[in-house]
């Protein structure tokens, strides 16, 4: 069990309890939460009961789940809500044409966080999920976001170990630096077999009101030469999202 930092506040401990829930965890036991949060079981149990009374967590027999109240507040106040709303119509149109996974992502530290995903029966293999994360260096969306990130973020990624999901995953600083430069030149990332050997990830930047990159719009398609043909449609959808964002930000409109 991890050591609890001296003087850690109750709020910090409660945050670690909530963050113990992973993307695949619908419920956890108190012992599992305590272990992941680095807390004694008695301490975790007491804090869990407080969070249950607040509606942030819920009891399901002997197991615990994230509460509806937590989802409600997060959904209402998140700064990503406007981005998702702006992107959704264009994602739906793109998805109807391509009939493959269509997804929207933002950078969160040195990871890519997926905000939205549309899928279809029989589509290519895709490991990403809504609210799921991947390292920036490994996916097309992550590479687009990293290519337009501050230099210190790029150096942080390059100086850390880079997990190789397949033999094609970029995992050296030299290759990553070259890939980021190419993405900035050509305006998109195309990653054949970087996460799964049978799929290709394609992503393009979505820009904000000051031409800054605020998100990445991506597709996951079969790993074959036809992947390149999807780039124009993907870029057109990203431009549409950018126009909506820019229009909404202009006072008086």
Care to give the gist of this entry?
The protein has 253 residues and is of the alpha+beta class.
In terms of topology, how is this protein built?
Layout: H1 10-18, E1 28-29, H2 30-37, H3 41-54, E2 57-60, E3 63-66, H4 68-77, H5 80-98, E4 101-108, E5 111-118, E6 133-135, H6 140-147, H7 151-158, H8 173-186, E7 189-192, E8 199-207, E9 213-222, H9 231-249
Antiparallel strand pairs: 1-3, 2-3, 4-5, 4-9, 5-6, 7-8, 8-9
Helix pairs in contact: 1-3, 2-3, 5-9, 6-8
Helix content: 40-55%
Strand content: 15-25%
Overall structural class, as computed from helix and strand content, comes to alpha+beta
Measured distance between first and last alpha carbons: 54 Å
User: Biggest sheet, strands in spatial order?
Assistant: 6-5-4-9-8-7
Q: Overall mean pLDDT score?
A: 89
List the uncertain runs. Answer: 1-5
Rg value? 20 Å
From the spread of the alpha carbons, the general shape counts as: globular
Number of strands: 9
- By DSSP (H or I, 4+ residues per run), the number of helices equals 9
Largest sheet: 6 strands, antiparallel
Notes on the structure:
- The protein has 253 residues and is an alpha+beta fold.
- 43% of the residues lie in helices and 21% in strands.
- The chain has helices at residues 10-18, 30-37, 41-54, 68-77, 80-98, 140-147, 151-158, 173-186, 231-249; strands spanning 28-29, 57-60, 63-66, 101-108, 111-118, 133-135, 189-192, 199-207, 213-222.
- The strands form 2 sheets. Strands 6-5-4-9-8-7 form a 6-stranded antiparallel sheet, sandwiched between helices.
- A hairpin with a 6-residue loop joins β7 (189-192) and β8 (199-207).
- The longest helix has 19 residues, at 80-98.
- The protein is globular, with a radius of gyration of 20 Å.
């Amino acid at each position: 069990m991890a050591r609890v930092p001296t003087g850690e506040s109750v709020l910090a401990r409660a945050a670690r309890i909530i963050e113990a829930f992973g993307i695949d965890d619908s419920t956890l036991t108190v012992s599992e939460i305590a272990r992941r949060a680095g807390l004694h079981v008695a301490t975790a149990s007491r804090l869990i009961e407080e969070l249950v009374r607040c509606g942030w967590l819920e009891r399901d027999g002997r197991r615990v789940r994230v509460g509806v109240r937590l989802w409600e507040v997060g959904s209402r106040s998140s700064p990503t809500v406007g981005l998702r709303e702006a992107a959704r119509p264009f994602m739906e149109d793109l998805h109807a044409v391509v009939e493959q996974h269509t997804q929207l992502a933002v950078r969160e530290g040195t990871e890519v966080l997926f905000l939205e995903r549309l899928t279809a029966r029989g589509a290519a293999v895709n490991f990403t999920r809504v609210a799921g994360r991947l390292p920036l260096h490994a996916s097309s969306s992550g590479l687009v976001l990293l290519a337009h990130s501050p230099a210190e973020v790029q150096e942080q990624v390059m100086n850390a170990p880079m997990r190789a999901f397949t033999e094609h995953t970029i995992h050296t600083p030299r290759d990553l630096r070259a890939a980021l430069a190419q993405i900035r030149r050509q305006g998109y990332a195309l990653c054949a077999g970087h996460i799964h050997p049978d799929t290709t990830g394609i992503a393009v930047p979505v820009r904000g009101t000051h031409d800054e990159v605020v998100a990445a719009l991506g597709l996951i398609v079969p790993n074959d030469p036809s992947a390149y043909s999807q780039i124009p449609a993907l870029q057109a959808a990203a431009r549409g999202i950018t126009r909506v964002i820019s229009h909404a930000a202009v006072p008086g409109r």
